[in-house]
Amino acid sequence: MTTIQFHYIHHSAFTFSDGKTTLLFDPYLEGNPEGLTAGDIKADYIFISHAHGDHLGDAYEIAKRNDALIISTAEIAHDAETHGCRAHAMHLGGTFAFPFGRVRITPAFHGSGIAGGHACGFIVRLAGKVIYFAGDTSLFGDMKLLGELEKIDYALLPIGDNFTMGPDDAVIAAKFLGARNVIPIHYSTWPIIAQDPQAFKAKAEAETASKVLTIAPGSTVELD
Ligand code: NI
């Protein structure tokens, strides 16, 4: 069975790697409690869900240092190109087969942080696994549809509340998605989004068929 490595930086910043290709998501480093800088991160592809500072973060600097390809909505991809990065523009509902696997851009209900844009999430295939990163979003009913379209192995869901859905709505999201595993993210970065991931895990595992993996910031785990 192929395993993939998941490294949780903190907030919504994390990587998935199959040993050949490293995918980096929403690399918010400067201001992140983990205290990393762009030089600490290696990546081949960088996904950006929206342009708020705690998601776009250090993406352009990391992209240039690694010659990584940025994958995002058209507005952010074009902005990345004007900053000297390589980028692949997609938009909501679109899929594209990259060398590592197919990517689908999903809606997210949140500000885009860029003129004319739309926040998004991603469904990514890597080493035979299907990964859904919801981005910053409220709960929305079409998560049911995403669960019908894709057999999700890992759903990364925000649980911080205030700016995104909170733990109770994320339990409903897990139910809608039918994901094999849920990884809570976007919490306890700052006091305003402080949450107890163990309480979320207990409720989600009692009310859904998903297993919840609570992963400490700064740690790496093998997933199968
Ligand atoms: Ni945001």
- Name every ligand kind in the structure: nickel (II) ion
Largest sheet: 7 strands, mixed
Mean pLDDT: 97
What's the N-to-C terminus distance?
A: 7 Å
What is the element string, with H for helices and E for strands? EEEEHHEHEEEEEHEHEHEE
Strands in their spatial order, largest beta sheet: 6-5-4-3-2-1-14
Report the principal-axis shape: globular
Task: Please report the total strand number as a whole number.
Answer: 14
User: By helix and strand content, what is the structural category?
Assistant: alpha/beta
- The total of helices stands at 6
Radius of gyration, whole Å: 16 Å
- The portion of residues forming beta strands comes to 25-35%
The helix fraction, in percent, is 10-25%
* Poorly predicted residue ranges: none
From the structure provided, what is the oligomeric state, counting identical versus distinct chains?
A: single chain
Report a brief summary of the structure:
The protein is α/β, with parallel strands linked by helices. 22% of the residues lie in helices and 30% in strands. The strands form two sheets. A seven-stranded mixed beta sheet has the order 6-5-4-3-2-1-14, covered by helices on one side. A seven-stranded mixed beta sheet has the order 7-8-9-10-11-12-13.
